[in-house]
Design goal:
The complex is a heterodimer of chains A (487) and B (249). Helix content of chain A is 24%, strand content 34%. Chain A is α/β, with parallel strands linked by helices and 487 residues long. The N terminus of chain A is likely disordered. The chains are: A alpha/beta (487), B alpha/beta (249).
């Protein structure tokens, strides 16, 4: 092995940076899933009857789905059967969650988020860039920052639980309206047991003055995380939302089954960015998060726009298809994705663009990078309904392979029921060239810098869609995730 | 500066270089000529340390140190530059960014401070004039969509910026029209100096009208079969390689 490769090997053996466990006393339900568990979760949250009814309806359907073997098997991922009765469906820090000010938050929690580079103390943000953060720790939201500043503009940004309590009308109107409780196996499970998440409502004509973000952290062992995010942009409103996620290193697999629903009314615009860095498991594929997530946005209004950008570097398995339902005429859907699988990671990810309204347009740019023994699939559906006159889609799926043991697969599905539609699909698969690496090294650039440069170049079209602060983080994340991928 | 002693080398598993001795001193320009398949490009790849090319016996000393023990990027930082016959395209990586990263990697190896974006811009503009390189090429991805001539200019531009000690030009004239050849040669000549050596690999005499060598070597069957002054190139132009190859066999 050459000197350079030995160096890469060392880097590869560096630990996942966010793998620490916080010592926080938690209130955790014993493993198991039945009506009692759902009732207990609902009771802990002091939910109204309608909320409990929604959960119970979902639970009944989910248990049927388990009996009928409805767990999806079409994705190109491989994992042993999950025992849904062995998971704990609720875990929360013991100290009081509802706090009047951040001073009352458990200092250990604040330290945890500081360690992750997320400050929950507004005055501590010296960078000059304001980002309102909702921090979700295991099953509950622990803090939401900049709330009062947002309130002045009429923007609601709070935990999901608070929204159920204080804004029941909005929740009842929109919850499950994009992803119905029975939509799919994992969404159904989430609908029964979801514990918390973020809620945002941007009123008519308001452009949200700062990035909204949620930072998800799984801490407890033996639990799943089931959060729910609901974002509504009213007529002419505009918002950019970011989410980040990390988890401790554990030898067991942990399930994360989230649901995200976005609604954009006339002329509204939502930009939703994800930097997903759940613990990916070790080099041999032991441990890691199962990231089975349903994300969907409805462009209900005319000229509305929903744009998904995701950088997926973590998780043992990713199963995720952020989608857009383009109902309003001239509405726009976008999906920009970078997914990276190294070592034994598996990802089956892509999008669905459902064109229903006239002159709707969608753009899909997907960049997949596989290294080690990583397996990756792009799976995307472009559907043009019979009334979607003049609909247009452009899809581009590029895969980059590093090494000989990884795989990249592309599954594009097209359903066009309108003759005036224009659909374009381009796909490429390439290997990182020995030629390219040697060219860089001949110019004095080290092998790992060269790989990171080439990969970042490959992903550029997607990374530039991310808000500035996150673009840098995403680039670093890609480099870190790739360490040890060459040689 | 460069001492090649009884060098034998393989490309993959195939023995190509079968005993080369060559000594290049600072300030000298050596041309290596030879027919296709004689081992010219293998020699340049071996010197630059390209993976897949292995030295089976003999040694190469660069400034008195064992060149073969160095990783390719270390050779580059120590001052060996290879102008590629076929410069690769790297999509998405900005040319300007790449050149700056390259220059700074080499500068920090030399113990010099790294250049910031402004200083680099100034320096690169100055060098671009020498090779008549349009500034818009700096904002594009490395070599992507460049014409053959633009790629070669980009190589010489990099050479001008990095100021290497030993410049290896691998068939830099291939695919160039006469105007581009003149420009590229002008860039190379601007770098000639008492502290710098050059190894010019070419199939044709034409390039040597512009870059006049001190020594010319003819490579055939993996060996140097004849060495001489610049007039040897003219003789080859006239007679072809046949008469030498017969002698080598």
């Amino acid at each position: 092995m050459s000197e350079g490769n030995a160096h890469l090997e060392r880097l590869a053996n560096e630990e996942y940076k966010y793998g620490f466990v916080s010592d926080i006393e938690s209130d955790q339900l014993p493993p198991g899933l039945d009506e009692n568990v759902v009732r207990t979760i609902s009771a802990k949250k002091r939910e109204p009857q309608w909320m409990l009814d929604f959960r119970l309806k979902a639970l009944r359907r989910f248990l049927e789905m388990v009996d009928e073997n409805h767990e999806p098997t079409w994705a190109k991922v491989d994992y042993p059967p999950i025992d849904y009765q062995s998971i704990s469906y609720y875990s929360a820090p013991k100290k009081p969650v509802e706090v009047a000010s951040l001073d009352e938050v458990d200092p250990e929690l604040l330290r945890t988020y500081e360690k992750l580079g997320i400050s929950l103390l507004e005055q501590k943000r010296l960078s000059g860039v304001k980002i309102a953060v909702d921090a979700v720790f295991d099953s509950v939201s622990v803090a939401t920052t900049f709330r009062s500043e947002l309130q002045k503009k009429g923007i609601i940004f709070c935990s999901f639980s608070e929204a159920v309590e204080h804004h029941p009308d909005l929740i009842r109107e929109y919850l499950g309206s994009v992803v119905p409780y029975s939509d799919n196996f994992f969404a159904c499970l989430n609908s029964a047991v979801f514990s918390d998440g973020s809620f945002a409502y941007i009123p008519k004509g308001v452009h949200c003055p700062m990035e909204l973000s949620t930072y998800f952290r799984i801490n407890s062992a033996g639990t799943g995380q089931f959060e729910r995010t609901l974002l509504i942009a009213a007529e002419g409103a505009k918002v950019s939302y970011l989410e980040g996620c990390t988890a401790p290193m554990r030898d067991e697999n942990q399930l994360h089954a989230a649901v995200v629903e976005l609604i954009a009314l006339d002329d509204a615009s939502i930009k939703y960015s994800t930097v997903q860095n759940w613990y990916p498991g070790d080099k041999n594929g032991v441990g890691g998060i199962y990231n089975f997530v349903t994300k969907r946005g409805a462009c209900r209004g005319r000229r509305s726009k929903i744009s998904w950008t995701q950088v997926e570097t973590g998780s043992a398995i990713t199963w995720k298809y952020p989608s857009c339902i383009l109902q309003g005429d001239e509405s726009v859907g976008e999906f920009y994705s970078v997914a990276m699988t190294n070592h034994r990671q598996q990802a089956d990810t892509g999008t669905k663009m459902i064109h229903l309204g006239k002159n709707t347009t969608s753009t899909i740019i997907s960049k997949g990078i596989s290294a080690g023994r990583g397996q990756q699939s792009y799976r995307g559906l472009v559907k043009i309904g019979p009334k979607a006159d003049g609909a247009r889609n452009y899809s581009q799926c590029d895969s980059l392979l590093l090494g000989d043991e990884c795989g990249a697969h592309t599954f594009p599905y097209l359903e066009v029921k309108n003759a005036t539609a224009t659909v374009e699909h381009e796909a490429t698969t390439s290997k990182i060239g020995e030629d390219q690496l040697f060219y860089c090294r001949q110019r004095g650039i080290s092998e790992e810098d060269a790989v990171s440069m080439i990969v970042n170049g490959f992903c550029k079209e997607v990374l530039r869609e991310l808000p500035m602060e996150f673009a840098v983080e995403a680039q670093n994340l890609l480099s870190v995730s790739l360490e040890g991928a060459v040689g | 500066m460069l001492e090649i002693k009884n060098l034998h080398a393989n490309a993959g598993d195939k023995p190509i270089i079968k005993g080369i001795d060559l000594s290049i001193r600072a300030g000298e320009v050596h041309a290596i000529m030879g027919p296709n398949g004689s081992g010219k490009s293998t020699l340049s790849n071996v010197l630059a340390g390209r993976p897949g090319y292995t030295v089976t016996s003999g040694e190469v000393l660069f400034l008195g140190r064992d060149l073969c023990a160095m990783e390719p990027e270390v050779r580059a930082r120590e001052g060996i530059f290879l102008a590629f016959q076929y410069p690769v395209e790297i999509p998405g990586v900005n040319n300007n960014y790449f050149l700056k990263a390259s220059l700074n990697a080499i500068r920090s190896h030399r113990g010099e401070p790294e250049l910031d974006a402004m200083d680099f811009l100034k320096l690169s503009k100055e060098k671009m004039k020498l090779v008549e390189m349009p500034s818009e090429l700096m904002g594009r991805a490395i070599n992507q969509g460049f014409s053959g001539g633009e790629k070669k200019r980009n190589e010489i531009l990099q050479m001008l910026l990095l100021e290497p000690k030993l410049c290896i030009l691998d068939e830099t004239d291939s695919g160039l029209d006469i105007d581009a050849l003149r420009v590229v040669a002008g860039g190379v000549n601007a770098l000639r100096g008492p502290d710098r050596a050059m190894l010019v690999i070419t199939h044709y005499q034409r390039l040597l009208d512009y870059i006049v060598p001190d020594h010319v070597h003819v490579l055939s069957g993996g060996r140097i079969v004849k060495s001489g002054g610049k007039e040897l190139a003219l003789e080859l132009e006239e007679k072809g390689y046949g008469w030498l190859e017969k002698g080598a066999a």
